[in-house]
Every structure is written in structure tokens, then in C-alpha cells.
Design brief:
Blueprint: E1 4-7, H1 15-22, E2 25-28, H2 39-48, E3 52-55, H3 58-70, E4 78-80, H4 87-100, E5 110-112
Parallel strand pairs: 1-2, 1-3, 3-4, 4-5
Helix pairs in contact: 1-4
Amino acid sequence: MTVRFLLDEHVWGGLVQLAIKIGADALLVQTQLEKGASDEDVLVLAASERRILLTSNAQDFAPLAVDWFLAEREHWGIIIVPGQTDKSLLSRAVRNIAQNYEPDAFKNSYRFIQEFLPA
């Protein structure tokens, strides 16, 4: 199964082209929802399309992940990408995810992109 990503507003959009090159799938949230859409709407979109959400918005998505857990709602994963993450590091981590993980490995998880940098 192909790993699918949804890139939140402040995540580097160049990952869309990288995803295509490595056989993954990525969408920019702003191509699917209006600018400034609520975090809930972003996570609903990601969940409905079985996409791992890449976001730099840890402040809002951490409590949202807890709310979804308590409500027994499922999503396909939230990965935090700190805003100042180097593009080459981000690219290596996304490539590692796409090539070495099954999408189900992220279901209902809240993680940080640094976990996926290859050794």
C-alpha cells in the first residue's frame, strides 16, 4: 500500500514532487481546503483520505490528537515537522517513511519527523 501524506499549510510544498519521485502520494492542504481551515477540518480530511498529516502546528494538533483518542475517532497519523526543519533532512525522513513503513504503522499515532531520519 502506498504511503499518502497531507501537508499542512506551513510544511514545505516541495515534498509533493519528492513523493511522486519515490512512489508515494502527497497533497497540499491548501489545494483541498480553504486557507485558514480549522485544524479539525484538516485532520478530518487527512483521516477521510487515509493520509498521514505532516504539520508544524504541534500546539494545536497535540490536544486534537488527544480529543480524537478520547472520542475513539481514528486518523492515519500526525507527524510534527518543526518549522525550521532543513529541507534535506525532511526529504530524507519522508523518503525513509515511504520506502520502509506501511501506512498502518502510523494509524492513530502522534510522532515527530526526527524519529524517521535514517541512521
